[in-house]
Amino acid sequence: MQTTSGPVHPGWPARLHVVTGKGGTGKTTVAAALALALAAGGHRTLLVEVEGRQGIAQLFGTDPLPYQERRIAETGDGGQVLALAVDPEQALLEYLDRFYKLGAAGRVLRRLGAIDFATTIAPGMRDVLLTGKIKEATTRTEAGRRVYRAVVLDAPPAGRIGRFLNVTAETARLAKVGPIKTQSEGVAALLRSPMTQVHLVTLLEEMPVQETVDTLAELGELRLPIGRIIVNAAQPPLLAAGPTRSALRAGLAAAGLPAGREVVAGLHAEAREHLAREQRQARLREELAELGHPIVELPLLAGGADRAGLGTLAAALG
Question: Does 49 score more than 50 pLDDT?
Answer without folding.
Answer: yes
